[in-house]
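Exercise 3.2. Students should predict the tertiary structure of the chain below and write it as structure tokens, then compare their answer with the key that follows.

Predict this chain's 3D structure.
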Amino acid sequence: MVEVDLHLHTTLSDGTLKPSQVVDLCAERGLKIIAISDHDSTEGLAEAFETAKRYPELTIVPAIELSTDIPGSEVHVLGYFVDYNDASFQQVLKGFREGRTDRGRLMVQKLNDLGLNISWERVEELSDGGAVGRPHVAQALVEAGYIEYPREAFDRYIGREGPAYVGRPRLTPVEAVNLLTDNGALPVMAHPTYHKSEPGITHTDALRSTLLELKEAGLVGMEVHYGDYTEEEVARLLKLANELELVPCGGSDYHASGNPGEPEPGSVGPPMASIEALESIRRQRAASS
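Answer key:
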């Protein structure tokens, strides 16, 4: 039975359920420890913690997910046990969210130029006051009948190679790890199979190189038990995590997006031992600071 899910999103970034709804759902599924890990935002945590008071057996880990750039691709870094009252940290996140808004406007304009008539006002409404993201643009395209499922928007229009894609200022992976460690959070690489390798270099070798660089900066873990990973992928990633002495983390990466086959809370997650390992590292770092 899965009791831990360390990767969940709400309406405060690109999920479609409010923080209270995500907490209720996780409690109903029998989860014991969850992490609300919205993109560039911790604004949903207060509501999540308030809702969790109804469930004494459920613990919430305050978290965040940061997107970073590498040549030709990107790396996402999760931060666990984030200090969301850190004013300087919040100022940086505000800048990230403003960059998302500017990019969203430009994407809508590009889509309009392609004959896909959605409005920026509707995209803002779909974000429900949270950080505007590409999934909100995708939802607007679904509503307008241009596509059937949100993921089609990424495949056809707003993915990195799509005709309506717009970049935005981002940190490098090392800068993201440094930002999180300065905050006191524990950095973990998200969905490592998304990491791209150059021709002639195996995915595992490229990933190992990146992980070693990030570990030197303060990375403590990597997602292993994630989404719809196959048993073979989990075994390969677990072997790599053990080799590099990184905590094997993971979760559903739940957005309630409406895409067919989306992993849901309670379907996948790391063992309780991973939480215990994170807590141990947290105590060690606190004692040495």
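Discussion points: The chain has two domains: 4-93+173-288, 97-158. The longest strand covers residues 59-70.
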